[in-house]
Every structure is written in structure tokens, then in C-alpha cells.
Amino acid sequence: MHCLLLLEFRLAVIQLQVTSVKADNLSRARRLVKEAADQGSKVVLLPEFFNSPYGPSFFSAYAERIPGESTQMLSDAAKEHKVYLVGGSIPEEDGGKLYNSCPVFGPDGDMILKHRKIHLFDIDVPGKIRFQESESLSPGNSLSMFETPFCKVGVGICYDMRFAELAQLYARKGCQLLVYPGAFNLTTGPAHWELLQRGRSAVDNQVYVATASPARDETASYVAWGHSSVVNPCCYHYSVYLGSPLNLSYLSSSPLQYLADIRQQLPITAQRRNDLYTVTSVQEG
Ligand SMILES: *[C@@H]1O[C@H](CO)[C@@H](O)[C@H](O)[C@H]1NC(C)=O
Ligand SMILES: *[C@@H]1O[C@H](CO)[C@@H](O)[C@H](O)[C@H]1NC(C)=O
Ligand SMILES: CC(=O)N[C@H]1CO[C@H](CO)[C@@H](O)[C@@H]1O
């Protein structure tokens, strides 16, 4: 279950501007994956809806089956550059339903898993705001973890990050890195984006957390907060992007040794009272 090969590795987080021309954005994403790999990255993370503008009106127009055009690009890029590629997310069509799906590819180009966003964002504050993702999307029904030679990774998408239980389960099942492609807005972004990452990472679970957001584009119909980041298990926060249209951030050094040190210094993992309380998964899919 646990990943035993504790090697150093480089993670790249790609924050890119997403516009309405899918093909251009796909080729840009591909170039950035190459750039990340050329700089030594072994695991590369793309943003939520990196091939499509965000919003219910776009999902069906941009949706693809998997495999399809976007996942073919991701597969080719992963294989060509020998990286684990976490394909942010794309709108997926399957059996007449739409999903917000994150496909993950290995260095051989094979798809390792597909995480469909589990928690859909539905709010209804009478007289103020009504936003129902579930009117256009269907939820996934499984946890999503994968092994790399470097560490074990748990995958969530955007709103999934707000659910502490999911991150706890991933950590308990041996994940040392959690990745969340996400697109918070200009209200929830400053309020919670970094706070949630630090909570899921250093406070609750002592794992690394990486997020990738589309770049901030003030002219878009949905303006994403940006601020793709990596948080280490001691709460250091690396936010590299302040709305710049494309950029890469890197995490190197000896991340897993550091993780072990932190867990020794603050042994919340070992000192949990599993005899009094526990978080369990009902269904792993
Ligand atoms: C961001 O989303 C929250 C929650 O849905 C909403 O209350 C807020 O008005 C949104 N902010 C912007 C700037 O769209
Ligand atoms: C990313 O953006 C930061 C801040 O603008 C800049 O200092 C850095 O050089 C950029 N990195 C890359 C790889 O472009
Ligand atoms: C990041 C990036 O290259 N985005 C491109 C997506 O496609 C539009 C439309 O052609 C371009 O203007 C963007 O530069």
C-alpha cells in the first residue's frame, strides 16, 4: 500500500490561461508540460478545466469522451516526456452525463486513473445566489489514488478540497501528496484557497498539497483566483503565481525525508485515538 521508495523528485504545477479556443490551449498545455519535463519535473499538474472556460454553459460544448482529443494529447505528452501527468480536469461526457474529470497518465502514456469530482458545488441562498453544479454535472463515486516511484498521490478536484475526511482517508491510505486542480473565485479564493491547503496539508494530515488553478483573467466570464501553490507538511506555502498567464512552480529538495521528520516532531499520525474515533471509506470504487 505505502510507497516505499522515498526518492527526491520535482513536481511542476502549471497555471495557464484558458480561453475559448480549445486547440490552442491544448497545444499550450502540451508545450508547458514539455518545459516542465525539460527542467527535470517527474510529476506535472495541470489546472481544473484547462481545456474549457468554466461554467455550465460551456461544459457540454467542450465535453469529450475519454479517450478523446484532450486525453490523447495528455497521454502523448506524458509518454514523450516520461512524466506522471495529472491532467487537471476536463468536462467529460459519458452515457449522456457530464462529469468534471481528472485523468492521470503514467510515463508510458497509459491512463492510470480518472477522478470524477466527487462533491458538486450546489448553493442556494434565497434572494442572493443560486448556483447548482449538479444541474449540469454528475458526481464521481470513488476515491482516486495512484502510486509513483516517488510517492503515493491522492486526487481531488476543487470543492473536494473542502472535505477534510477525503484528505484524511488519502493520508491514512499512505498518500504523501494530495493534488487538487481547482478554480476558486475572487471571494472564496482570498478567503479559503490557501487556508484549506494548509489545513489539509500541515494541520490535519502532514502531507504535501499542490493546487493548480487557471490563471486569473479579468475578462473571462468566470474569474479564477489563480495562486496555484504547493504547501509542505509544516505549513510553508509556496505561491508562485499572482495571476501571471503562464508559469511553472517547482518543489524539489528531499520532500519525503522532510515529511518523515515533521511526522516525528509532531506525531499526530501515530497518536490518533483510533480506538475512540475513525474515518473510514464506505466505498472505494
Ligand atoms: C464566489 O463564489 C461564492 C460562493 O458561491 C459566491 O458567494 C460569491 O459571490 C462568488 N464571488 C464572485 C466574485 O463571483
Ligand atoms: C514565475 O513567475 C515568477 C513571478 O513573476 C517569476 O519570478 C518566475 O521567474 C516565473 N517562473 C517561470 C518558470 O517562468
Ligand atoms: C495559455 C494559452 O496559450 N492560451 C491560448 C488559448 O487559446 C487562445 C485563443 O487562440 C490564445 O489567445 C491563448 O493564448
Percent range for β-strand residues: 15-25%
CATH architecture grouping: 4-Layer Sandwich
Rg estimate, integer Å? 18 Å
Distance from N terminus to C terminus (CA atoms, Å) equals 16 Å
- Flag low-confidence runs: 1-6, 241-250
Overall CATH class? Alpha Beta
How many domains is the backbone divided into? 1
Tell me which ligands are bound: 2-acetamido-2-deoxy-beta-D-glucopyranose
Here the CATH topology equals Nitrilase/N-carbamoyl-D-aminoacid amidohydrolase
How would you sum up this structure, described in words?
Strand 7 (about 120-125) and strand 8 (about 130) form a beta hairpin. Residues about 1-5 and about 240-250 have low confidence and may be disordered. This protein has one domain (about 1-270): 4-Layer Sandwich (Nitrilase/N-carbamoyl-D-aminoacid amidohydrolase). The chain has helices at about 20-40, 55-60, 70-80, 165-170, 190-205, 255-265; strands at about 10-15, 45, 85, 90-95, 95-105, 110-115, 120-125, 130, 145, 150-155, 175-180, 210, 230, 235-240, 245-250. It is of the alpha/beta class. The longest helix is centred in the N-terminal third of the chain and has 17 residues, at about 20-40. The chain contains six helices and 15 strands. The strands form three sheets. Strands 1, 2, 3, 4, 5, 6 and 15 form a seven-stranded mixed sheet that branches. Strands 9-10-11-12-13-14 form a six-stranded mixed sheet, with helices on one face. One 2-acetamido-2-deoxy-beta-D-glucopyranose (NAG) binds next to strand 15.
